[in-house]
Amino acid sequence: MAGARLGFVTWASHVPSGGNTYNQELVTALRAAGAAVDVHELPGDWPDPSARDVARLAGVLRGHEVSLVDGIVASAAPAAVRGAVDAGCAVAVLGHMPIGDEVGPGAARRAERGARERDALRGASVVICTSHGAAAEVARRYSLEDVRVALPGVRPAPQATGTRPPDPPGLLALAALTPTKDQVALVRALARVQGLPWSARLVGPEGDPAYARRVRAQIEEAGLTARVHLTGAQTGADLEAQWAATDLLVLTSRTETYGLVVTEALSRGIPAIVPAGTGAVEALQAGSAGGPGERAQGRAVAARDTGALAGALREWLTDAGLREAWRAAARERRGRLPGWDVTAEQVLAHLAG
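User: That's the sequence. What structure does it adopt?
Assistant: Structure tokens below.
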């Protein structure tokens, strides 16, 4: 793509999320690397666009020799992707999460989304995923021979101070309130350890208002309204204040491509509990030197298993030695985490190849 302007195509959403953060940081890093990038934020009901939305995307793709398109947009419009490629344009799809994996829509809608995604990815010039696990799954699911990887980077961040006695340990769940992120499972696990000192903050937008009401009802039912706080979406200084007061990140997603929030925690020296069998395990291992004596900076527990999650929380809350070991390991990783410049280099190499 030497000399060509890159069209970066995404949806018109500024709701805080790992995917949106990745896109913003990548564009900044690409420009810092000398790439000419035109950003197109397309309105529409993605990933279920109207015919007008798809036509708008088709026009944008044909207006660039090379386009990099967020998967929530490209995977919803296979005809636009294939049409641009047939016209001689290169279209790379950046997959944050398979659009059929979102928990909530019925089986028929998920199947329809999956079929459209299959056709879009098969028609694209190249497919780039944000974790090795996701790349392997997408290749298997859609019979693709070559799916590339561009792991998320991380910005340097101040080390979190955490809490100090007499304040209880501070837990943070940073994610949109949706069935996929499964905050209900976290609340149920917390109900099992309410005899121990802790406080928890659920920070994130109400991605699914009905589900958000369910989370609030679960908090009330468990008698945890004084200890579990829903803050809504937070950014900037407000979010940094949340990080600073955190001792442990808890991620309970049913599915997770990578879990950018995990490396954001590690960049601040904060350990994490993540769902086993998801890309968040890969994120938890970011910056690993691979030595046999390397200490763990958290733990993976089975997704949706509230008993296992409660057990891990109980062990962490009652074992001061474990808390210190996880914290020390997380702080050791801070200087070894890759930056967004590495992500940009990987993306540019994939586009060139």
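The chain has 14 helices and twelve strands.
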